[in-house]
Amino acid sequence: MEPCVSVISLAPYSIFRINREEGTFIMPARKQHERYAKLVVSGTHKTKKDFGEGQFEWYTTPAKALAEDLIRDCSQHGAFILDGDVEPSEQRLLDEEEKLKQTYAKWIEEADGIFNRTGDVKLLTLHAREAAKALGVKRAWVSGLENMTLCEFCKGSVPYNVAKCSNCGAILNWEMARRGGLVSPEQIKIAVKKGWLQPEEEEDDRPSQAPAALPVEVGEPRVRASRK
Ligand SMILES: [Zn+2]
Phi/psi at 199 (nearest 5 deg)? Predict the structure, then answer.
C-alpha cells in the first residue's frame, strides 16, 4: 500500500485551500462539536514537469513532503501531521490544543496593542478575530472585524464582497470584477474557460441550458489579476 499521512487541524476555520499540480487540497474547518478535522493525503503524487518542445519528466512528491508543504504557512493554527490514516492520541490533542490556546492569546495581545495605539481595525489580522472567538474574549475591535474576511491567496484581511483583494490583487469575485471592469477580456476568457465565470449572455430572457449543470471547480479563483 502506498504510504499516506493525516493532516490534523484544530482550527474552527479552513486553514488552507491550495491548488497544486498534484491536485487541490482543502483543509476543512473543525466542526463545532468536534475537536479536530482530518485530511488524508495519500499515495505518492506523480506530476509531469514540462520543459516544452516535447521534453518532460515525471517526478514524484511523497505524501509526507506534500503535507508538510501544505501546512507550512499554517502550522501555527493548530495543524500537524501524523503518519498513516490515523487519529491523534488524547495526549497529542491536549498538547496541540494548549499550544493553539497560547498562540491565540498572543494574537489577541498583539491586536490589543495595535488597537490601543491606533484605534484602526484595518491594521488587525483576522487571526485575532478568530482567536478572540475561540477563547470567548470580548473586545471592541472584534465587531469591527466582523465584516472582514480572509483573502485565501495572501491571507490578508479584506472586506466581504469585494471583487479584488487590495493586498495582493487576486480576483475574489469574478462576476463583480467583470461588471466593474477590473479584469481584461483575456482574463475573462480564461475565467470562463476554467468555469469560474459564466459566459456573458447576449439576451437575458433566453433560458440558458448549461449553468446549473456546470461543474463548479473547487478553489475557484485561481488566476491572479496582473497588477497594473
Ligand atoms: Zn490577497
Answer: -60, 145
Q: How far is the CA of 224 from the centre of ligand 1 (A)?
A: 9
Residues present in the chain in total: 228
Cα(100)–Cα(36) distance, integer angstroms: 12
- How far, in Å, from the CA of 148 to the mean position of ligand 1? 12
Judge contact between 39 and 11, C-beta under 8 A.
Answer: no
Distance (angstroms) between ligand 1 centre and the Cα of 136 equals 27
Q: How far apart are CA 227 and CA 165, in angstroms?
A: 11
Dist. CA 46 → ligand 1 center (Å):
29
CA separation for the pair 211, 133 (Å, rounded): 38
Please write the tens of the pLDDT for every residue from 164-213: 888 788 888 898 899 888 899 999 999 899 888 888 765 444 444 433 33
Q: Structural domain boundaries of the chain?
A: 5-88, 92-146
E strand or H helix that includes residue 23: strand 23-27
Query: How far is the centre of ligand 1, averaged over its atoms, from the C-alpha of 185 (Å)?
Result: 22
Q: Can you give the pLDDT at residue 204? A: 46
Q: How far is the CA of 221 from the centre of ligand 1 (A)?
A: 11
Neighbours of ion ligand 1 (CB under 5 A): 151, 153-154, 156, 165, 167-168, 170
For residue 43, report the distance from its CA to the centre of ligand 1, in Å.
31
Buried b / exposed e over 76-97, threshold 16 CB at 10 Å, is bbbbbbbeeeeebeeeebeebe
Q: Has this prediction a pTM greater than 0.85?
A: no
